[in-house]
Request: fold
Amino acid sequence: MRLRAALFGFFIPVLLLGQGTGKLTLESLFHPSRKIQYLGSPSTRLAWAPDGSLVQTERRNGKVALLRVDPRTWEKQPLFEADRLLAALKVAGAPEAAASEALDSASLSWNEARSAFVVSIADDLYLVDAVQAQARRLTSAPGKEDEPTFSPDGRQVAFLRGNDLYSVDTQTSQETRLTTGGGETVFNGRLDWVYQEEVYGRGSFRAFWWSPDSSRLAYISFDETKVPVYTLADDRNTPQTFLKARYPKAGDPNPIARLGVVDLSGNTSWMADPYDGKETLLVQVGWNPGGELLACFQDRVQTWLELRSYQGTGSKLLIHEQGVAWQERLPLPRYLKDGAFLWESDRSGFRHLYRYSKDAKLLNAVTSGDWCVEDVFGVDEASKQVYFAATERSFTGLDAYRATLTGKAPEPQTTKGKKKAEALAREPAMVRLTQAPGTHSVAFSPDFSMFLDSSTDAATPRQQALFDRRGTRLRLIDDNPSPLYKAVQLGTVKFQQVKTRDGFPMETLLVLPPNFDPAKKYPVVQHIYGGPGFPSFRTHQVRDALNASMLWYHFLAQQGYVVWICDNRLASGKGAVSAAGSYHQLYVQELQDQMDGLAWLKLQGWADMDRVALEGWSYGGSMTAYSLTHSKGYKVGIAGAPVTDWRLYDSIYTERFMGLPKENAAGYDASSILKAAPSLSGKLLILHGTLDDNVHPQNTVQFIDALQKALKPVDVMLLPGSDHGPVAPHHVWARIKASWDFISENL
Reply:
């Protein structure tokens, strides 16, 4: 249940900026044809190549070009130009218009050396040698090829056609069908809806993984025969059309997942079930450097996780993790050259790194403390250090760090040629590499000698720079001056911690109107998400970062509203230890925390507590609807795509936090918005996409039905054709216009 972010673009003259007054307008922020790109963005798109150079992607006259950049001298040489590759693709038989469109989209699947890529054109795959500007058609059979993936040696490309797995030789274009039996209810190598959404990550449906020696592929086969079908009707068409998907709601049968290994001749070996028929989830698959298959399993309701390795078809347990409340999915181990590996765990209550020996014995904690490791970039074996992102400095920002693999300070080095060895100054066991406050997104070179840093804070649009391994800036790549943003009359952004009644420190944010007067009373608009996310920085709403949402808050501040955001403990990112109070009763602890936030707001004296609005989408929409049916703290609520009863949401997400409905009926009832409809307090606007395949419109329809039966008024805005995250310009405009009209008329 992750809300997709909407990006706002287009540049138009500055006259729309309130005719030069510095005032934001709704149209300049969100209108499909009139919006302004106030914040800009770093214009140089860069990625590291295996040889330590940078690959820059740019558009020239509407065409994509790739340049190889020397990071030390910043000299650039063409890697490929679209015109040459387009000519090569035409020679290989690709239709010119489709080939041009494919190249312009830059949706390319590269080999490990980044010397060649595969591109899909008119439902066929073409191999392009970017160095020689040559192309070859790889497939010609009917049907679309999905998820093309090079083998490590670059000699094969695996892909999906329908619900079966294939490979094609890059030298001969000989195609081999690796699996059979895929169809409407059997997915071989392709993720089904719920595994894609809630386990492996939205957007990619690939469920196959090459072995290190390129001789085999591990894959998951899903049997969805018993999974119920949910139907969405698209009433924009005459006759109406239907979208059907197998979607397990809480307590429904899940897809049955089997783990297999197939060779390049199409012979599959099925891995033995280590749990003797007990219902489990297969949440990670991969290989260790020696070619042993790895997999992580969880029980259905996700209270534990086990890492296993396979010799033949049988498995060996390496690590067992037991959740503080529930157990989050964990990444596969990161192996070192000596066979030892790094493992991420929430066992301390916070996400940290641990080092294990090659026989899976715990050696030491690499990191520790009341903060979370968010992402691991890699290990520099030469210096025996690991590089990662973490919230050690602040839970409202994100920084890059390095730490020793032993978790201890490096041994002192000695100078040579002196009578007495002089110990050089020790570095601590962990060093922060990013210095400026705010949120940093970094990418390290293959040898960890340099890193790219894309950074922002609440007052600064995103910039991009190159740094050395010690955090010294080598080059400012994009300063992104954003002159339009500099002309905006901004409110005052303030961060502060607010403690709950039991002492938990919640991170909060205020945007105060320009010329704020604490002697006056101000209406308040509160934004919320509120849902579980550890250690995921993505669920935080209180962030030291500047984005399109922050401009919306500044717009509200210019209209005389105070904007308030309070990350309740479940959404704080402050480790698994912070989530236990919400276990088996989502919304309940979250609302109590939010009431404590409002109590602090009341004490400030300038907030008009009779005029507070709450708005959010997805989990935030759910929290809005729950808050207005279970408290009297809000005059106005705007709920986007809310889950109104957890029995209506998907099995894997819901059961992780709520357990099975038959085993936790009281918890499901306590979290039900439907059952509390007669208690609605304040005015409520509900927005929902009619083709939302994630939070089904059924949630909103049943809630409206319950409100009408309780004689409670409700306003509704449907977004015809939108899925869970409205991104079409007219949907974004309709959503924001309805929200602003509702706030200005009712608050």
About this structure: The longest strand covers residues 607-617.
